[in-house]
Design a protein that fits this description.
The complex is a heterodimer.
Chain A: E1 4-7, E2 10-13, H1 15-36, H2 45-64
Antiparallel strand pairs in A: 1-2
Helix pairs in contact in A: 1-2
Chain B: H1 2-47, H2 53-63, H3 68-95, H4 100-120, H5 123-140, H6 150-174, H7 181-201, H8 209-233, H9 238-273, H10 277-287, H11 289-294, H12 305-328, H13 333-365, H14 384-408, H15 413-428, H16 433-458, H17 465-476, H18 478-483, H19 491-503, H20 513-536, H21 544-563, H22 569-586, H23 593-621, H24 626-644, H25 648-664, H26 667-680, H27 686-693, H28 696-702
Helix pairs in contact in B: 1-2, 1-6, 2-6, 2-19, 3-4, 3-5, 3-6, 4-5, 4-14, 4-15, 5-6, 5-15, 7-8, 8-9, 8-22, 8-23, 9-10, 9-13, 9-22, 9-23, 10-12, 10-13, 12-13, 13-26, 14-15, 14-20, 15-20, 16-17, 16-19, 16-20, 21-22, 21-23, 21-24, 22-23, 23-24, 23-26, 24-25, 25-26, 27-28
Chain lengths: 66, 703
């Protein structure tokens, strides 16, 4: 995966699409976890969501941009 | 002795002290979170080598709010507004790179349209519109002298703004979040139990019109408030987002039940006044078992909600049998027909009440909603005249500023325009814009003073980020603290904005007193000009003209109920009539003649409009003789036209059309027609009063 991608002549960081993809994945996970009631079982729901997002984005970024 | 007097002094002080400390604690948590978000944003902006960390700080100061759901809602719409605004800024710059005379008016027009959009959509969507205008201005204005730099400037501004949004959302979500969800749940429950208690208390018989109007106001306020809260909480909590559609359904079912309830009571009241006491007594007797059905069985945990639904269903099943019994006791066809109308209305009300309670129960337990979840929307009603006025006002303000800028070659014209952009949009929706601008102006001036002291007194000689924080923190935290005081609206926000603008944090920092004071004067000028525009072209809010317009719009809803396509009409009618009433009533004094008139009209509109919709559903269901169908449709048209253009001739036409239709109609539509006729002839209704006041002789004859 390139570090920078050209979009209509503009250079954008290669991580941007990864970030957007992770956001979409996060929304889907949110839906699923909300339906299962998982967020009621964790101590700090928003911290958990943030940590989950950081894990997702970190893993995807490290795997794709090497 | 001393110990006794000590205790006497100490005892009453504690509750006061406790309350004070709790309030202060919340305020300081908010101040701490704002400061954390601001400095974190500034540090990240410097680390990422963005041009103006100040923009990030300004974004944080605009977006931060004590409740995290509000911050997320604001952030979401602000991000949308920022993206749209930067694209427009780029497009305008690309169209008119060399012609300021064309560029500035078109920018003014864009900003003005955004201000109008902010008036059209209240809630946080309004905010997105304000920011779309503002971002177009911050992207394009600094690049006026250097059109080639506009793309880089746009990228920088958007990055800074989005960084600020992300940081404030993160901090308010993760650090000691204060949630809106408990407030939503609490007010929804209070509202639910309040309504049930009101219904229970009213089964004894009639309710005076005044009490009815007060109840109407309270219930309308609750319905709109719940919708507003729901729109913010869905950003904060994924579980609430899942239930959002169900909460909408609950609110709509509540509104439907409340309208049926009022219609029923109006009907009973009219019977009592019109010498039909026997029918009214029979209806009240039919109605009484509802009180028992609404009382949860003793000794049950919680509020006994589980038992209520079967009780209500049983009550609904028992209704026809009881009605037949009571009907047999009445003499004469006329009385029986009146009784049938009331009994049908009561059956509808009990059914809706049972649906409402079942939805509430489903919401609490997470079970499936019976009857299937229908897609419903809370439809708002807005006055386009007000939005148009905001567009005109903002356009003229911006045009005046740009003309002055072009004619004088003022170096700081861009700053003045920027400030005018923000405040003409933000303040347009406030109930007293001139007062708000004055408050903000005072706060802004104070903030700039504080920033000047900081920049020239404390910062020179400081080195590194910790010293920057240490130098700016003491005077900066006054702003967020002031914004937690309810007595000083706008001052805190003005202070923070003014401080951050003048601080103009850069990396490396620039110290230029001349620039600072020129900028300060330009910004105050822009802010003052937007205030002057509000004085010259005051908003319509609270004027008699707007009230008359709103009243006309309210009456037009009956026309809507009589003519619009039936699909989803019921929900649209119920929510729009409430939204409109609340907008109109906010600007009247409680208990004044104007507010009474509005409430009376809204009750009449809801009763007639709802009856029209039910009647149209009966007609659409088919199975009617063509003559009866035609007569029914003629009656619908006549009543709708009467509410749209009320006068004595139309009243007589509507009365005659309804009479003809009653003679031809089978029982089901006849009940609704009968209810319509009874509402038309209601001597306490504002409709009849208005007709009587206008042409005195004719309508008195007709009635």
């Amino acid at each position: 995966m390139p570090l920078e991608i050209a979009f209509h002549g503009m250079l954008m960081p290669g991580l941007l699409p990864v970030f957007v993809g992770c956001l979409v994945l996060m929304v889907l996970l949110d839906l699923a976890f909300g339906r299962l009631g998982l967020y009621r079982r964790v101590w700090h729901a928003s911290l958990f969501r943030l940590a989950l997002f950081v894990c997702l984005f970190g893993a995807a970024g490290l795997l794709l941009v090497r | 002795m001393a110990a006794v007097s000590d205790a006497a002094v100490q005892a009453p002080r504690r509750p006061w002290l406790g309350g004070f400390l709790a309030g202060e604690g919340r305020a300081w948590i908010f101040v701490g979170k704002t400061m954390l978000a601001m400095y974190l944003g500034a540090w990240l902006a410097m680390w990422l080598q963005l041009e103006q960390p100040a923009t990030t700080m300004i974004t944080v100061s605009i977006v931060m709010h004590p409740h995290s759901g509000m911050v997320l809602a604001k952030s979401f719409y602000r991000a949308l507004g920022t993206l749209a605004g930067s694209l427009v800024g780029l497009a305008l710059m690309g169209l008119f790179p060399q012609q300021r005379e064309l560029f500035l008016p078109s920018l003014s027009l864009w900003v003005a349209l955004c201000a109008g959009g902010a008036m059209r959509y209240r809630n946080f969507m309004a905010y997105g519109f304000v920011l779309a205008g503002y971002t177009a201005a911050i992207v394009a204005l600094p690049a006026v002298g250097d059109p080639y730099g506009v793309f880089d400037s746009a990228v920088m501004r958007v990055s800074e703004v989005l960084l600020g949004i992300a940081v404030s959302a993160l901090v308010s979500e993760v650090v000691l979040p204060e949630r809106l969800r408990p407030i939503l749940r609490q007010s929804a429950r209070a509202h639910f139990t309040g309504f049930l208690a009101f219904v229970r208390g009213s089964t004894a018989g009639s309710i005076p019109r005044e009490a009815m109007q007060d109840a109407q106001l309270a219930s309308v306020r609750a319905a709109v408030r719940l919708e507003d809260l729901r729109a913010s909480v869905i950003f904060e909590d994924p579980e609430v987002r899942l239930r959002s559609r169900r909460m909408r359904l609950l609110n709509q079912r509540y509104m439907a039940a409340a309208t049926s309830f009022q219609s029923l009571h109006h009907l009973i009241n009219r019977m009592q006044r019109g010498g039909r006491a026997a029918v009214a007594a029979a209806l009240i007797a039919l109605y009484r078992p509802l009180a028992a059905a609404l009382t949860p069985p003793a000794g049950q945990a919680g509020d006994g909600l589980d038992a209520l639904v079967p009780q209500l269903d049983a009550c609904a099943r028992a209704l026809p049998g009881r009605a037949a019994e009571l009907r047999a006791g009445l003499a004469g066809d006329g009385e029986r027909m009146e009784f049938d109308t009331g009994a049908a209305l009561l059956a509808r009300f009990v059914g809706e009440l049972a649906d409402f309670v079942a939805t509430e129960q489903a919401l609490r337990t997470g079970a499936a909603v019976r009857g299937g979840v229908e897609r419903v929307h809370f439809s708002r009603s807005t006055d386009m005249a007000n939005a148009g006025l905001a567009v005109l006002r903002t356009f003229l303000t911006m045009l005046a500023l740009s003309a002055f800028w072009l004619a004088s070659g003022w170096a700081f014209g861009a700053s003045a325009m920027l400030l005018a952009t923000i405040f003409s949009g933000l303040m347009a929706a406030s109930p007293n814009p001139v007062g708000s601008v004055l408050h903000t102006l005072a706060g802004y001036a104070l903030g700039m003073l504080g920033a000047a002291v900081t920049v020239f007194g404390l910062l020179p000689g400081s080195d590194g980020f910790p010293m920057l924080v240490a130098g700016t923190l003491p005077l900066l935290l006054i702003g967020p603290y002031l914004s937690t005081r309810d007595g000083l609206p706008g001052v805190g926000a003005g202070y923070t904005l003014g401080f951050v603008y003048i601080l103009a944090l850069k990396n490396p920092m620039v110290y230029d007193p001349e620039h600072v004071f020129n900028d300060a004067i330009a910004q105050l000028g822009g802010l003052a000009l937007s205030g002057a525009a509000f004085m010259l072209l005051p908003g319509l809010a609270g004027t008699g003209w707007q009230r008359r317009r709103q009243l006309r719009q309210l009456r037009r809803l009956v026309w809507l109920a009589g003519t619009a396509p039936l699909a989803g009409l019921l929900w649209r009618f119920e929510s729009r009539s409430r939204d409109l009433l609340l907008q109109a009533v906010t600007h009247t004094r409680p208990g004044s003649a104007e507010s009474r008139t509005l409430l009376a009209w809204s009750l009449a509109v809801q009763e007639s409009g709802r009856a029209l919709i039910e009647l149209r559903q009966d007609l659409a269901a088919g199975g009617l003789a063509p003559a009866a169908r035609a007569a029914g449709e003629a009656a619908v048209q006549a009543v709708a036209a009467l509410y749209r253009w009320p006068d004595a001739a139309r009243w007589r036409a509507a009365d005659r059309a309804v009479d003809t239709a009653i003679a031809l109609a089978p029982p089901r539509p006849r009940n609704h027609l009968y209810q319509l006729r009874s509402a038309l002839r209601d001597d306490e209704s504002p409709l009849v009063a208005a007709l009587r006041a206008a042409p005195p002789v004719e309508s008195a004859d007709a009635a």
